[in-house]
Amino acid sequence: MRTTLHPFHAMKALMLAGFLSGSALALAAPAPSFDIARVRADIQTLSSDAFEGRGPATAGEKKTIDYIAAQMKAAGVKPAGDKSSYFQNVPLLQSDIVGTPRLSMTIGGKAIPLAQGEQIAVRAASTGQDAVKIAEAPLVFVGYGVKAPERKWDDFKGVDLKGKIMVVLVNDPDFEGGESDFGGKLMTYYGRWTYKYEEAAQQGAAGVLVIHENEPASYGWATVKNSNTNTMFDIVRKDPKAAHTQMEAWIQRDLAAELFKASGIDIEAAKAAARKADFKPMPLKATMDADYAVKAQVITSYNVAGMVPGKGHPDETVIYSAHWDHLGVGLPDAKGDRIYNGAKDNASGIAALLELARTFAKGPQPDRTVLFLAVTAEEKGLLGTEYYADNPLRPLAKTVGVLNMDGPFGIEKTTDFSISGNAKLDLLTMLTEEGARQGRSYTPDARPEAGSFYRSDHFPFAKRGVPAISFSAGRTLVNGGQVRGKELQNIYTRDRYHQPADEYDPSWNMDSAPGDLTMLYNVGRELADGRSWPNWSSDSEFRAARDQSMSSRP
């Protein structure tokens, strides 16, 4: 448990207890100030068309990582990457569909061509193969595609999927109510498409089709299309076919409804059946054909790492992280714009990272080392962080905690804050205490059905036991409260998230930024100057991994 307060907070506590006078408190270091104009400039630069959407393995990557490293160097932040540089090499498998994929289904005896990005969104194969050729593969509906022995749940019931296409629903079996124990609206990892892809490979399927619906997916078709029809990346695996089928794709709900109707099944009835533990796979009266070439190669992308060394315990590390990548150049939107600028997602997080790095570099030297980590390929499955967690620049056992930033600033100034997911850990307690000093309260994740806990760069650290959170500025606005906050967030998700319209706007309200940065800085400073080792709650699935590394810490 945490036992040491930041010196300023400790002094304040002593004064309140009558042990220090107000004049003594006045001698404490003032709260840091942040240059919001500089934060704006970083966002504007990183999300400009010149950076081409910051796609990994593009000219935009080179500009991005060089810019981040240059800002770190100018701030006096020391290199923390490979060979005393600011960069950590991250080998990735890069895959692209060559040309236009030929896709079709035969539904109830009728051949129907499918247009990439319209009825279907097919990803480039992550298996390393140079072509995908599927002919008349039968389609089988397997509910949510979940096999969870601890929940006594098995959607497969021994069905043979070899040579067949697995059709699955997005999210968990109890998202819309059911007889299961999958967290209700709180998505478990079983609800993530990454899990469903992996399970399809384990089941020996020829491919997998995820049925898209806005509510259980938590985003619209535009996000699905834009995220899946461009260049794909994966970590370099010894056996990629153990984690991926040759064809991974999403389909529109209307197309899925046709599939079920031709098989004499109502789609809502099929969904209702899938919510029960006695669900059995349903063969569909449809087959699929796919034919396209794939260009696959191993490339090197880069994490950017800088540090402010600790003076007392330099081998212990506090990490601030944010992903620098976005979707690069992809399919055009209705206006013909093909550059996915990613201003909020996540030029804003990198701008916050850089401003915090400058503040630590010019402030009192921390007792522990503070690492500023800008990671690659988050949009492709948290790959830069996964690589770091497997190949850490600083030992994970002596990593005190991770504060991740992914779109960290509020749309406007808020009276609350949140984190991605609803995990319980000491870092959240610290944030809650710091928020209270600002008059801000903790609000649980407003969209637990989105599975945000598994979608941000804190997760690879968390599953290895390192206490880690992704900060959110909250949605209860000073002007308009929760109602207006939800309305503005929904507009962003619908109209800009993973779309070319996520661009910098000089009229952005940045009133939230000073308070957000102050919370992040003060919690990080408390960790860096203290002797505590935060942990997960006693009932957390990540507690055991953290406890196992206890012997490596003082």
Task: Describe the structure in brief.
With 554 residues, the chain is an alpha/beta fold. 30% of the residues lie in helices and 24% in strands. The chain has a 16-stranded mixed β-sheet that branches.
Low-confidence stretches: 1-29
Secondary-structure-derived class: alpha/beta
β-strand amount:
15-25%
* Proper CATH architecture of the largest domain: 3-Layer(aba) Sandwich
What does it look like?
- With 554 residues, this protein is of the alpha/beta class.
- The chain has 2 domains: 95-296, Glucose Oxidase, domain 1, CATH 3.50.30.30; 309-549, 3-Layer(aba) Sandwich (Aminopeptidase).
- The chain is 30% helix and 24% strand.
- It contains 16 helices and 20 strands.
- The strands form 3 sheets. The chain has a 16-stranded mixed sheet that branches.
- Strand 2 and strand 3 form a beta hairpin.
- The longest helix has 20 residues, at 343-362.
- It is globular, with a radius of gyration of 24 Å.
- It starts with 6 loop residues before the first helix and ends in a 6-residue tail after the last helix.
Helices and strands, with pairings:
Elements: H1 7-16, H2 22-26, H3 36-46, H4 59-75, E1 78-79, E2 87-107, E3 110-114, E4 120-122, E5 131-141, E6 147-148, E7 153-154, E8 165-169, H5 193-202, E9 207-211, H6 214-217, H7 221-228, E10 232-235, E11 247-251, H8 253-262, H9 267-274, E12 282-308, E13 313-323, E14 328-329, E15 339-340, H10 343-362, E16 368-375, H11 383-390, E17 399-405, E18 416-419, H12 426-437, E19 441-442, H13 459-462, E20 468-472, H14 481-495, H15 513-529, H16 543-548
Parallel strand pairs: 5-8, 8-9, 9-11, 13-16, 13-17, 17-20, 18-19
Antiparallel strand pairs: 1-12, 2-3, 2-10, 2-12, 4-11, 5-12, 6-7, 12-16, 14-15, 18-20
Helix pairs in contact: 3-10, 4-10, 10-15, 12-15
